[in-house]
Design brief:
By secondary structure, this protein is of the alpha/beta class. The chain is built from 16 helices and 8 strands. α5 runs parallel beside α6, α11 packs across α16 and α13 packs across α15. It starts with a strand and ends with a helix.
Length: about 425
């Protein structure tokens, strides 16, 4: 049985891969509920992602996203219910017939009408859901627990008879009565449901509560368990892939082409007209950026000192690598002093820092030295020169440089 990750919106050859043989001084005790080498991803950008307020995916865009996700290697792609509109039904048929390696699923209400419509589109599997909390049973569909069980059994048996995979999920699982949940899941497990799902629909569960419910369900069902949460899931997917990569790097790299992660994220972000957050894990602009002097110097010597994953595994680069500049340690220190001096006389954006570094590098081989920033006033040039002279002459600065060197050398030695 394989654990499943449910996520939304997914994402270099190295001469020396410093991350390949890292050792972990503190290892976690094996958890037999988890199996890193046997995870599957159910990717729901084309279902739950489409519920984003600004999202509109026409058929061509859906096909483009589905193909991109398939290239990454996700095992399942989940689509909007064909019952939501005639166009959604046609889109299910179109994507189901693309011949992708990924299996195509669609997500519908737990009733026979929706189930028959889903099967007719040619998808590989059907995910059915119904609210089980007192809130939803009273104010949404008005059905009893026994009705839910009877309907679920009827739907599951039908979908299985059509040769399709079938998942049953309870909605608002963490505000549902545990006894009710166990009754329902035990009933669907006995008739051979492919997998079951739990949903923290309103985001009330803590990680420990999720763990406890999954552990309890594991004692009741023998099938796979899928967990989802009604929040922005792109971040969660990235973090899970990163966690898996740390635990079993070669397995994950062999299973998923994570170098395509950023391209897919940009594709989806462009389609819904939002910017990818600068601090987004792994793919954000600042994901592999280091500001503290001790950290930055150690990273230059050996990235494994402060990075547990390799950005190249995700097709990413560090900020310094992106600039493609080759400088000695002395030149880097000299450039750093200039950036610090400039920051003392005016506010600097990240783009300004890149300009300074590039211009400094150009000046190293140019006969005619140009200003580090083109728009400096005469007053700023004078203040910059004074500040740079002050920084270069500070005994404290030299002392800090020496301490940073010693600390970095010690850290690097510890990782060799």
């Amino acid at each position: 049985m394989a654990p499943y990750l449910n996520g939304t919106g997914i994402g270099a050859d190295l001469v020396h891969d410093v991350h390949a043989h890292q050792t972990k001084p503190m290892r976690t005790v094996q958890d037999f509920l988890s199996n890193v080498s046997n995870f599957h991803i159910i990717e729901s950008t084309l279902r739950e992602g489409e519920q984003f307020a600004n999202a509109f995916f026409d058929t061509n865009k859906k096909v483009q996203i589905a193909r991109a996700l398939d290239e990454i290697g996700v095992e399942y792609i989940e689509l909007t219910s064909p019952a939501s509109s005639e166009q959604s039904r046609k889109d299910c048929e179109t994507i189901a017939n693309l011949g992708l390696k990924a299996k195509i699923l669609t997500h519908v209400r737990c009733n026979m009408e929706d189930a028959r419509l889903a099967v007719s589109t040619g998808v590989h599997g059907v995910d059915v859901v119904i609210g089980t909390s007192s809130y939803l049973r009273e104010h949404s569909h008005g059905k009893s627990i026994q009705y839910i069980i009877d309907t679920a059994i009827e739907v599951i048996e039908y979908v299985k008879s059509q040769g399709k995979e079938i998942r049953f999920s309870s909605e608002d699982s963490f505000r549902s009565d545990l006894v009710d949940l166990l009754r329902i899941y035990s009933a669907v497990d006995k008739i051979g449901v492919t997998r079951v799902g739990i949903a923290d629909t309103v985001g009330v569960a803590t990680p420990r509560e999720v763990y406890d419910l999954v552990r309890t369900l594991r004692g009741v069902v023998h099938c796979d368990i899928v967990g989802s949460r009604n929040r922005i899931r792109r971040v969660r997917t990235h973090l899970k892939q990163a966690r898996m990569l740390v635990q079993d790097r070669e397995y994950v790299k062999g299973k998923y082409d994570l170098t395509k992660l950023k391209a897919v994220e940009d594709l989806v972000a462009d389609a819904v007209e939002v910017n990818v957050p600068f601090n987004n894990p792994i793919t954000g602009f600042c994901a592999f950026t280091h500001k503290a002097g001790i950290h930055a110097k150690a990273i230059l010597a050996n990235p494994a000192t402060y990075e547990i994953i390799n950005p190249a595994d995700f097709g990413m680069q560090r900020a310094g690598d992106q600039l493609g500049l080759d400088m000695t340690d002395a030149q880097i220190k000299q450039c750093t002093v200039k950036i610090k001096a400039m920051a003392d006389i005016r506010k600097l954006a990240i783009e300004d820092t890149d300009v300074i570094i590039n211009q400094f590098y150009h000046n190293l081989s140019s006969e005619n030295e140009k200003p580090l920033l083109a728009d400096l006033s005469n007053e700023e040039k004078k203040a910059f020169a004074e500040k740079e002279m002050e920084l270069n002459g500070e005994p404290e600065m030299k002392k800090l440089d020496a301490l940073a060197d010693a600390h970095t050398n010690g850290v690097v030695a510890d990782h060799v």
